[in-house]
Amino acid sequence: MSGHSTDSSLRESAQRRGRCGFMMLRLGFAWSTSSATTKHIAQARLSTGSLLRKNSPRTLYNNWCSGLPKALQFGQKSVLASTRLFWDSSRSSGVIFFSMASGSNGPDRSKTPKHTNRLSKEKSSYLLQHAHNPVDWYPWGQEAFDKAKSEDKPIFLSVGYSTCHWCHVMERESFEDEEIGKILSENFVCIKVDREERPDVDKVYMTFVQATSGGGGWPMSVWLTPDLRPFIGGTYFPPRDSGRRPGLKTVLLRIIEQWQSNRETLESSGERVLEALRKGTEISASPGETLPSSPDVANRCYQQLAHSYEEEYGGFREAPKFPSPVNLMFLMSFWAVNRASSEGAEALRMVLHTLRMMALGGIHDHVAQGFHRYSTDSSWHVPHFEKMLYDQGQLAVAYITAYQVSGECLFADVARDVLLYVSRDLSDKSGGFYSAEDADSFPTVESTEKREGAFCVWTAGEIRELLPDIVKGATGAITQANIFMHHYGVKEQGNVDPAQDPHGELQGQNVLIVRYSVELTAAHFSISVDRLSELLSDARAKLAEVRKARPPPHLDTKMLASWNGLMLSGFARVGAVLGDKALLERAERAACFLQEHLWDEEGQRILHSCYRGDNMEVEQAASPIAGFLDDYAFVVCGLLDLFEATQRVHWLQWAEELQLRQDQLFWDSQGSGYFCSDPSDPTLLLALKQDQDGAEPSANSVSAMNLLRLSHLTGRQDWIQRSQQLLTAFSDRLIKVPVALPDMVRSVMAQHYTLKQIVICGQPDAEDTASLISCVNSLFLPHK
């Protein structure tokens, strides 16, 4: 999810090339070492690093199989022959991904459910999707833990999220299967976790899976001892063997056998990896260590990003391409302090070109606004159609910042476009924001099988039928459809490359992508640019009306404090730059929602999530989930942005209050930096500090800047010192691989250049005061 780690980039690359799922089975007998993995983890593996550098993937595969207990070797030759193999030769590790075709869409859900389990009492959309599986699912909690201990059974932990395509596939293939459900229920204590609801649980076990396999992803499948210690980790499994390729049923039966006959070996192997992870994931400031040099760290981060920059279409690395707002924001900050240098000019060019190409591409929804999750190709054309709230919030900020830097109206228009989508489709009447829209939906109301992108794509015939009118003044008998199809690249046979659609779900369909500038299209049809703009706007509105009649994708109405904080920043920043009171009012409604529904006044804590109930009112879970570090950091950032946009002191005061509470709950008084979750939680085996800016920025990165801003706004010098201590704890990472933490590098730069305060004296409601504030807001001042 995009600033992605090498592991996650490889994982998502393989996952989307051919929209394949991928399966990995590991028992702590790991077979590789990653360049980013510490020596402690490497020592816990059966390392084949030397083999990886000189042997082929086939030789690697043979060595991998030979490292497993004999009972879990699945037949090397036939497995290798029946898989599609993805190999990253640039790394000192590799991952074998098994390409799977998706099956049917499962049973008719209109019938009375045959099975109902404990998940039916939950609020999470993802957990509710599994409430009628023939699996005796438990939510994460003491009831499940006690059952595992009392019956001395291993735990099967399955983690995913409601808009995850391959989570849907594994559910209908395996978790709706009666035989597999019986095996799971009789031999394991089965726990389902929504990774968005419990990111703390997800991070701990994903760390195990990544460390023991070299990759990770969702759905995540992990087998644990009754005391929650992992001993086997994997991701997607098909239901049954294909040839001699193992399916979930086979894996389950062999784990049962090994648990009964070889339990001690499984447990000790998993414990060795876990102990190594405790040492290898430790982040702390060493005695005498100082803050890294800002120019050195910033220049290295720029060079690393420039090395991965893709010239033709922008973005970083080849397909799949992620928006990576953290990279874009760093590059604009880098330009701001290096304007006179060639590197600064190049950094700005990279950002603006990337944002333009994304805005024109299919990753941008030209009919209903907003951005899809990522592009499966290098040209930003065919997306993974899921839409996530955290992308919208960060991209709104990135586009409005590009407008500040360049003055180019396209960027302001796109920022407004994003907020229009969120206001219309992801907003609750309470003022909160929903989490996501799914990629899959039914093509028609009569359809029985969902398809990815069905809600968003068009045939040429549909376009002609919707836009039949002859355009007066155009050359020849030209219809509105002719103009629209030319401008947006619509083809009779469809415009999706079969390589991006291996399962044929998009055959004959078109993903809209702007192929020409309005000037070129207008000239091509001999009409004015203004007339063309009217025609295209009218056409998009007609298509939007038709889309409303299609079966919509699943909407995850879970409302998360962290993602609402990111979206709050989006509305506040765009509203301030454009001087748009309506956007600022929407931002304040979001802040009021957070204070009313996700702040526990009695416990003086943020709550992580709330939900839209059946009565359309906001509801809490029976046992509310306490907020994590992300929740505090992102909400504080949003409140500071809102204070700067509105000058209302209340929001600054609440931000200060939340920062104090964050310090109490998550600060590591021994090694500095913030833990991701409550370090005293006995159910979490690792106390982690997020060391990567990915699809979302690391909460430590955001906190470093929050502390600086709060210090200058409140006069508290201890917060400057805390920010410096935090950055010092991450200094090794910042010096070696700053590209992993571009948002934190911005904080290092802010420490170096110091924040500048701009004081405007005047009556708050006076016209000249407003003009001065507007002037300041129009400028990109990263160290303001």
UniProtKB/TrEMBL annotation:
GO BP, sorted A to Z: carbohydrate metabolic process
Boundaries of every Spermatogenesis-associated protein 20-like TRX domain copy: 116-277
Pfam families per the UniProt record, alphabetical: Thioredox_DsbH (PF03190)
Matches recorded under InterPro entries: 6-hairpin_glycosidase_sf (IPR008928), 6hp_glycosidase-like_sf (IPR012341), Ssp411 (IPR024705), Ssp411-like_TRX (IPR004879), Thioredoxin-like_sf (IPR036249)
Listed transmembrane segments: none
Protein name, entry field: Spermatogenesis associated 20
The organism of origin for this protein: Cyprinus carpio (Common carp)
